[in-house]
Amino acid sequence: SRHLLSLADASREMLEALLIRAQAFAEGHYDRRALDGIAVCTLFFEPSTRTRLSFQLAAQQLGAHVLNFDASTSSTSKGETALDTLKNIEAMGTRGFIVRHREDGAVAALAAQAREGTCLVNAGDGRSAHPTQGLLDMLSLRQAKGRDFSGLRVAMIGDVKHSRVARSDLQALRTLGMGEIRVCGPASLLPDDGTLDGCTVTQDFDAALDGVDAVMMLRLQRERMEEGLVSSLQDYHRDYGLSAARLKRAAADAVVMHPGPMNRGVEITDEVADGPQSLILTQVANGVAVRMAVLEALLKG
Ligand code: CP
């Protein structure tokens, strides 16, 4: 496809090809003129630090021109629609769009109306998908644990219900043959829409952590939450916050991941986030490499 909207239909071959290419980029093997003369735009209708800046750097490192659109300082504030915004930036000759939007399906809807030859990458839509986060998490896991996931156990903890990261990660983990996927959180934050098919689901955090090779923590997404889904942040931390003492239940060489931004002291303690088992900044570094691979695959040649 000329767009990357989700990982739901991505084959194992496609994911592995992108991860191999991203690993080469992570090792510094790339052509700085691969996207010479191509204009790409980061079209963000929701805030971002990591995704936006790493796409910007990825595009620049491949020689593309990068336009940065920020809804809060744009004519969106005068009522211009997302589609008109896209059409106008397309008219300037822009071929690639990296789009984040608060509504589920908004990026796919824009892609359906884009002109022939325009490529869209979903940089996060609502609760639905964040495919490049899924890819960078898989790259980080491969580097830490090897390419064969079949003998591994991973625990995903927290607010799965509101998380597009969780949905893309779970799709990629299944496609790449993860041995066991445990999902744990309060019942109010676990979806019942098929997202957790094939996962071992529990509300017992200690049982979820027992012997796992990787712990994927999720941000408590208070901006997408109705009132009352969690009783208090203190209670949430007590029941589902990852502390160093709790992490001891996982394998001794287990890695800890978090997509960022973190609620420090809520879903994860400083000691774990900044500790020796944390892959959190490695994930960020891999975000640049994965986004280079995606932009190259969609836009080169
Ligand atoms: N992980 C992630 O998507 O971070 P940002 O919202 O800062 O881009």
What does this protein structure show overall?
L-aspartate binds at residues 78, 164, 219. Belongs to the aspartate/ornithine carbamoyltransferase superfamily. ATCase family. One of its GO terms (cellular component) is cytosol. By secondary structure, this protein is an alpha/beta fold. The protein has 2 domains: 12-129 and 284-299, Aspartate/ornithine carbamoyltransferase (Rossmann fold, 3-Layer(aba) Sandwich); 131-279, Rossmann fold (3-Layer(aba) Sandwich), CATH 3.40.50.1370. 38% of the residues lie in helices and 15% in strands. The protein has helices spanning 12-26, 50-61, 82-91, 106-113, 131-145, 164-175, 205-209, 233-240, 244-247, 270-273, 280-299, and strands at residues 39-44, 65-70, 96-101, 119-125, 153-157, 180-184, 200-202, 214-217, 255-257. It has a 5-stranded parallel sheet with strand order 7-6-5-8-9. A 4-stranded parallel sheet has the order 2-1-3-4, with helices on both faces. α1 (12-26) packs across α11 (280-299) and α5 packs across α6. The longest helix is centred in the last third of the chain and has 20 residues, at 280-299. Phosphoric acid mono(formamide)ester (CP) binds at residues 48-52, 124, 133, 259-261.
